[in-house]
Design a protein that fits this description.
- By secondary structure, the protein is mainly alpha-helical.
- It has 6 helices and no strands.
Length: 167
């Protein structure tokens, strides 16, 4: 009954899913959205050269891991989670993380999962922190605790999408 009133929709294009058991529509399933090897060992970005281990991008972190190429339709889908309260779309990404990144996540031997915090003003406006949704799913996947009070965002900074790569 609920699926009749609220039919499942594709988390990438937001079109109604017609085939029972489908997670994404046929059109989106043909799109190459997932990062494939080789990737930069440090940041996880796709690389063309199989012989290099690291890309030349400047980094101020030790290790990153990516699931999808950050372009449409992924950007639209993630924006829908963040700004249109389409939290149910996160489940699709968490399932793909389990399928594609689970072993890599286990190798990190994490003791806990800590989501990137958002400023309290943004949290009040949005009602949730999208990073917590993903962190909770990953913490459950790894059977590890999630801590939300360890790191606090004090400054209400500009959104990353408004910053240059150097910033």
């Amino acid at each position: 009954m609920l699926s009749f009133l609220f039919p499942p929709i594709c988390p990438l294009c937001a079109k109604e899913l017609l085939d029972k058991g489908e997670h994404i529509c046929k059109s989106c399933s043909k799109k190459q959205i997932f990062i494939k090897e080789p990737t930069c060992y440090s940041c996880g970005k796709p690389m063309k050269n199989h012989e290099k281990e690291y890309c030349s991008d400047p980094k101020n972190f030790e290790r990153g891991m990516g699931l999808c190429i950050y372009q449409k339709p992924v950007t639209n889908s993630l924006a829908a989670i963040k700004y249109k309260n389409e939290r149910k779309f996160a489940q699709y990404y968490l399932e793909e993380i389990r399928k594609r990144k689970y072993r890599e996540l286990l190798r990190l031997k994490a003791d806990a999962v800590i989501p990137v915090p958002i400023h309290k003003k943004k949290r009040r406006k949005r009602g949730f922190n999208q990073a917590e949704i993903f962190a909770k799913g990953i913490a459950e996947m790894l059977d590890q605790p999630m801590y939300t009070k360890i790191v606090e965002r004090i400054h209400d900074t500009k959104p990353q999408k408004q910053l240059s790569p150097g910033e």
